[in-house]
Specification:
three-stranded antiparallel beta sheet; 4 helices; 17% helix; alpha+beta; four-stranded antiparallel beta sheet
Length: 208
């Protein structure tokens, strides 16, 4: 995976991350009992909303309705919605075998990063923690759940690809988008693709 080569190369500048420190609560799926008496987890859905901070020139995503409200209200100043949203599964859902929890790590502001990493790749989550634990602090091992692509970037039926782009700067910001138009715009600005396959796919969001 291209992101792992960048993250674990010689330069800390190339770490994978995202923005702004929030909490780690998210919508939980509703528990119920099936007719045969076996407890089952219902499939809950969340909107993963993108925000932008013009002062930092950073993008951020969150699937936590509480965090979305905080940013919408301006409690953490400077963040505005971009209009980009994709749908994922809530914490505690059991949608299918291709679904992974998404971890979130925070790059502490002291080294000049102040950004987040979101990954559904367990190896990536673990290696960021092990290799760069003094700079990247794990906030949660499960902020939402989402389907993952195969090794060439293919997504399961009924899902759409989510692309990841890296700004190649010391403040190490990433943008996640389902739009190939947005991807092209970011590449024109110098951002580079990360993820599986030539498209740089990292997640497979719930399709329309």
């Amino acid at each position: 995976m291209a992101s792992l080569r960048r993250v674990f190369g010689a330069s800390v500048v190339a770490l994978v991350v995202l923005v702004a420190a929030f909490g780690s609560d998210a919508l939980a799926a509703t528990r119920y009992w099936s007719l045969d008496g076996v407890q089952t987890l219902a499939v809950g859905l969340v909107d993963v909303v993108e925000f932008y901070h013009a002062g930092l020139d950073h993008y951020s995503i969150t699937g936590d309705p509480g965090e979305v409200q905080v940013l919408d209200l301006g409690t953490i100043a400077g963040w505005t919605r971009t209009g980009q949203v994709f749908q994922a599964y809530a914490i505690g859902s059991s949608p299918g075998a291709a679904t992974n929890p998404v971890c979130r790590d925070f790059g502490v502001p002291v080294p000049g990063i102040s950004s987040h990493l979101h990954s559904a790749n367990a190896v990536e989550c673990y290696q960021v923690y092990v290799l760069f634990g003094t700079v990247w602090q794990i906030e949660s091992d499960n902020v939402f759940q989402i389907d993952v692509p195969d090794s060439v970037g293919g997504c399961p039926g009924g899902t759409i690809p989510v692309y990841r782009l890296f700004n190649s700067q010391a403040d190490a910001n990433h943008r996640y988008t389902t739009s190939t138009t947005v991807r092209a715009q970011m590449e024109a600005a110098g951002w580079v693709r990360e993820g599986y396959g030539p498209g740089g796919v990292v997640f497979c969001a719930i399709g329309p």
